[in-house]
Amino acid sequence: MTVTVTQPAIGGPQLPQERRLVTEIPGPLSRNLAARKDGAVSSAVGTMLPVYVAAAGGGVVVDIDGNSLIDLGSGIAVTTVGNSNPRVAEAVAAQAAAFTHTCFMITPYDGYIEVAEALNRLTPGDHDKRTALFNSGAEAVENAVKIARSHTGRQAVVAFDHGYHGRTNLTMALTAKSMPYKSGFGPFAPEVYRAPMSYPFRDGGADGVTAARRAIEVIEKQVGAANLAAVVIEPIQGEGGFVVPAPGFLPALAAWCTANGVVFVADEVQTGFARTGDLFACEDEGVVPDLIVTAKGIAGGLPLAAVTGRAEMMNAPHAGGLGGTYGGNPIACAAALAVFESIEADGLVDRAGQIGATLAERLTALQAADARIGDVRGRGAMMAIELVEPGTTEPDAALTQRVAAAAHAQGLVVLVCGTWGNVLRFLPPLSIPDHLLTEALDVLERIFKDS
Ligand SMILES: Cc1ncc(COP(=O)(O)O)c(CNCCCC(=O)O)c1O
């Protein structure tokens, strides 16, 4: 069946910034492509909302049926500076016209070095740093663990309840939730242990230092500091449910790591690059990680990831011990440099704070009117609501799915997460205009009223 797909429009902020529904969602052309997907793509690769995209930019995603949806997902916190951001699009086109790949390990190029210098400058801490570039968050987390093991000579790694770090073998071991990420894919990498997370909505509201003491107790008794290479933690947990640890938790954990020669690895794949209202989420409490893992928002949609950290740690592996064919691809590096420029020039850290204030105000008002919203949490343009049986902490995943489905049908691209699948998360691009954010929240309000 030949499907006539409308020519891709030109994306970016000049797209009409409107919610426009001209067919049901998904429309007929998308449904045809979904049928083709079934005959061509592994069924294991899911699609949350099978609308096939023609263009995107500002705060919208336009599908091939001509519908314009409000983007509250940013492709899972990736197009933070806006889809087809003009600076990024121009840099990518220019680099692609020069050379697309030579492999930095073979014949290097300045873009990789410029990105590394920028990350060394921009990430928390004024110590001497080095950077290594990779292609995905999981690959970067894997390499952060390699670096920590090389530096310490130890093997054990600790991750946290509700943590998410990727879909490779080691990162599956670090990830907490079994389905869909781990089930049936074992055995997993050894020497990975799990500690309790500070989850104020579910742990009785323990203060951060108390929660850290509880985690450290588990680590000391079940692993032993002398055996521990690294602690890997998301400053705000993403896939696990936008869990914001109680103030004091991260600083106490980081201090314990320093006191015990354990490498503190901040996984900022989802929180990095202005997403939370700071350039990096660690800054909120002045935490300076030994290693910081970044990806997603780093390159405006181009696949790029990085480990940045203390020079003595990053230089610990033997020469040739880190690498890979595509790591630091020149086009992705050009995109990243354009992203860093956009964040600075377009004041996107402050913009994330403004978006966060709007989300917090509206979601808190929604919670006051609906007891099924158990918690409102997050920071900046990384906010979420956790849905529960009224007056309890009993997760309500079914309600979450109903609300998400209704939102999709009404032209909102909104994502679900959480260990129990009961967290609705908001990750709009920082390029979203205020009127679209407001309209999206108005639609959500009506959905809760009708659900
Ligand atoms: C904190 C944190 N660390 C690591 C990763 C992994 O990053 P990759 O680029 O997806 O490998 C993520 C990716 N999160 C979205 C995964 C979506 C899915 O696969 O279903 C993350 O959020």
Main beta sheet: 7 strands, mixed
Q: Compute the separation of the termini in Å.
A: 38 Å
The CATH C-level name of the largest domain is: Alpha Beta
How many structural domains? 2
Strand content: 15-25%
**CATH topology call of the largest domain:** Aspartate Aminotransferase, domain 2
Helical content stands at 25-40%
Number of helices: 13
| Average pLDDT metric | 97
Give the bound compounds.
Answer: ligand PLZ
EC number: 2.6.1.19, 2.6.1.22
Pathway: Amino-acid degradation; 4-aminobutanoate degradation
Pfam family, one: Aminotran_3
Enzyme class: transferase
Task: Please give a structural write-up.
GO terms for molecular function: (S)-3-amino-2-methylpropionate transaminase activity; 4-aminobutyrate:2-oxoglutarate transaminase activity; identical protein binding; pyridoxal phosphate binding. Keywords: Aminotransferase, Pyridoxal phosphate, Transferase. The chain has 451 residues and is α/β, with parallel strands linked by helices. It folds into 2 domains: 158 residues, Aspartate Aminotransferase, domain 1; 259 residues, Aspartate Aminotransferase, domain 2. Helix content is 36%, strand content 16%. The chain has 13 helices and 15 strands. The strands form 3 sheets. A 7-stranded mixed sheet has the order 4-10-9-8-7-5-6, sandwiched between helices. 53% of the residues are buried. The model has no long low-confidence stretch (mean pLDDT 97). The ligand Cc1ncc(COP(=O)(O)O)c(CNCCCC(=O)O)c1O binds next to helix 5.
